[in-house]
């Protein structure tokens, strides 16, 4: 079910706001998954959690589907690096998610932003992460975006085969976030063609496999 190097996204089971933490599977036992310290996707910092903290965890499986399970922090372990232990789920408790709920892959891709229902001058930027349901990108100074705005995004996807796909999607601006004086925006794909989504799923899968192989070779 799990393998060393797999990425997990943890979300607190009880929270008034959307908070996501990324981590990797470092060790496995029959009843525990040992992960590195989770990093807040927005701040880029690790946070402290007490034993018993409940999480909703999602992961990308080799069958190219994404699954969710409920777990909780059950302990700590110091190996080469400090690790956290979360409860290993029973396969029957896994919930298969829809494609638009795929976990995010950190990647810098060229992106062009065009207006949809509000007039502004198109601009270019780079993504910081992407999934089959949306993306996050850096915003230039003086950008025209506002939360709730509808935009059109064009993203270049370089595949391992050498083929380059141009993804075009209608998007909704969800949140504009500021950190260390720089702004990023999270957008949701409100309309994306089936072929484009398939290419994006494949790209995310290739990137995750590459990251996993890199970790195993370290």
UniProtKB/TrEMBL annotation:
Residues 98-206 form the PilZ domain. The keyword Transmembrane does not apply. InterPro entries: PilZ_domain (IPR009875), T3SS_YcgR_PilZN (IPR009926). It holds the Pfam family PilZNR. Residues 4-89 form the Type III secretion system flagellar brake protein YcgR PilZN domain. The keyword Metal-binding does not apply. Keywords: Cell projection, Cilium, Flagellum. SUPFAM superfamilies: PilZ domain-like. This is Flagellar brake domain-containing protein.
């Amino acid at each position: 079910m799990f393998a060393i190097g797999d990425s997990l996204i943890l979300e607190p089971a009880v929270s008034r706001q959307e908070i996501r933490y990324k981590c990797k599977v470092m060790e496995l036992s029959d009843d525990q998954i040992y992960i590195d310290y989770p990093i807040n996707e927005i701040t880029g910092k690790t946070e402290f959690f007490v034993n018993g903290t409940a999480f909703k965890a999602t992961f990308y499986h080799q069958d190219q589907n994404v699954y969710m399970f409920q777990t909780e922090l059950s302990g700590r372990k110091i190996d080469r690096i400090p690790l956290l232990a979360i409860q290993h789920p029973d396969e029957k408790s896994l919930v298969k998610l829809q494609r638009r709920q795929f976990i995010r892959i950190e990647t810098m891709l060229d992106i062009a932003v065009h207006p949809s229902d509000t007039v502004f001058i198109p601009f270019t930027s780079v993504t910081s992460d992407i999934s089959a349901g949306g993306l996050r990108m850096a915003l230039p100074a003086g950008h025209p975006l506002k939360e709730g705005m509808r935009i059109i995004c064009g993203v270049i996807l370089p595949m391992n085969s050498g083929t380059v796909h141009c993804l075009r999607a209608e998007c909704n601006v969800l949140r504009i976030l500021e950190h260390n004086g720089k702004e990023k925006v999270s957008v949701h794909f409100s309309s994306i063609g089936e072929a484009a989504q398939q290419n994006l799923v494949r790209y995310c899968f290739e990137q995750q496999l590459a990251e996993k192989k890199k970790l195993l070779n370290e």
